[in-house]
Write a structure and sequence with these properties.
The complex is a heterodimer of chains A (about 200) and B (about 170). Chain A has about 200 residues and is mostly helical. Chain A is about 65% helix and about 0% strand. The chains are: A mainly alpha (about 200), B mainly alpha (about 170). Chain B: InterPro entries: Anti_sigma_zinc_sf.
Chain lengths: ~200, ~170
């Protein structure tokens, strides 16, 4: 019988090779994968959910799911596609279970262990809108974060994968289980929404 | 194209893909033609591009230093826990449950089949029982000869009484 392993086009992906070693209980290979993706996943989750602590928990859960599934692993996609598919599902489930919270519970990334501030301190005041060049960096960050939190889950994940991971429409489609054409429409709507939300700061 | 005319919805949807370099060659040329002649489209693309650049302001927090070790330790801990689903006892129990399920199913099927046959398929003895009242009086019916006689007899109550009393005398 011909298995996917002998014919898979993804075997050239070095991370797929690492995962095949993880399947054989190689913990060093697993550690390499964790190091490769931990910061990227925390960033994605932090911007998906607006919460730093939960972002770390969910990033760890992604790796644990990968580890649990190691014995049944087959290289049917690029490793990154698989990772971000799991991440998307976790983020969506997490947001559904918590409801649509609008507050932002983390500040910046200067410190690894910065405690979350109370939400009422984080909601930006409805000050007079100013062009980006007149806003200080933290205020602009706040506006951009607010804007991205107005997108729905799929739009936000697609934007983050495109911006942070520089993924192509095809790869984003595989991660979100959509056609490239659907990704094109999704990103177009997302970018139009962002433009509407941030128009004041780009003129 | 009119300098102030708006671009079509389809072209608008393509602007983002154009910026991302995701359009096929022919569509790219079409958008470039539109951009060359439409200040409105140029402005739209410019705003979309600058908005996208603003996303560089999003925070990219790093995982804490101990994240890798904590994750590995948690994963190993999960690995140490015996996977009950793979234990011989559980596998044996699972096989037993399957076997029991099949047996129970077959027994139930057999029972239902028996009940169905018992309920709907007539047997020879059932037919005999059904006809028993007729069989018991078969000799009397044979003497009757036909229904015409019975109908005429039923219209003669006097004769019937005499037959009963006469029958009584014959017996004395």
């Amino acid at each position: 019988m011909v298995t996917t392993e002998t014919t898979s086009p993804y075997l050239r992906d070095p991370e797929v090779q690492l995962m095949l070693r993880v399947r054989d209980n190689d913990d060093d290979a697993f550690a390499k994968l964790v190091r490769n993706y931990q910061d990227r996943l925390v960033s994605i989750f932090a911007n998906m959910l607006g919460e730093r602590d939960q972002a770390e928990d969910l990033a760890q859960e992604v790796f644990l799911r990968i580890y649990r599934a190691r014995h049944g692993y087959e290289p049917n996609a690029r490793f990154s596609t698989w990772v971000f598919r799991i991440a998307h599902n976790l983020a969506s489930n997490s947001r559904r279970s918590k409801g649509r919270r609008k507050e932002v519970a983390f500040r910046g990334s200067d410190s690894d262990s910065q405690a979350a501030r109370p939400a009422e301190q984080l909601v930006p005041e409805k000050s007079a809108l100013m062009p980006a060049r007149q806003l200080d960096r933290s205020e602009l960050q706040e506006r951009v974060r607010e804007a991205i939190l107005t997108l729905n889950d799929r739009q936000r994940m697609a934007i983050l994968l495109h911006k942070f991971e520089e993924m192509s429409y095809v790869d984003i489609g595989e991660a979100l289980d959509m056609s490239p054409q659907a990704v094109k429409s999704l990103l177009s709507r997302a970018r139009e929404n962002l433009r509407a939300a941030l128009e004041t700061y780009v003129k | 194209m009119d300098r102030l005319s708006r671009i079509s919805a389809e072209q608008r949807a393509d602007l983002v893909a154009y910026l991302d370099g995701e359009l096929p060659e022919d569509r790219t040329r079409e958008i470039e033609t539109v951009l060359a002649s439409s200040p409105v489209a140029q402005n739209d693309v410019e705003l979309l591009s600058r908005t996208y650049d603003l996303l560089d302001q999003l925070p990219r927090p790093a995982a804490p230093n101990e994240f890798t070790e904590k994750t590995l330790a948690t994963a190993r801990l999960e690995g140490i826990r015996p996977d009950l689903s793979q234990s011989p006892t559980v596998r044996l129990a699972r096989r037993g449950a399957v076997l029991f399920g099949w047996t129970l199913g077959l027994v139930m099927l057999a029972g239902l089949s028996y009940l169905a046959a018992n309920r709907w398929v007539p047997r020879e003895s059932d037919l005999l029982l059904q006809d028993l009242p007729v069989i018991e009086r078969l000799d009397e019916y044979a003497e009757v000869d036909n229904f015409t006689f019975l109908e005429r007899l039923s219209g003669q109550p006097q004769l019937l009484r005499e037959m009963r009393t006469g029958g009584g005398r014959e017996g004395q």
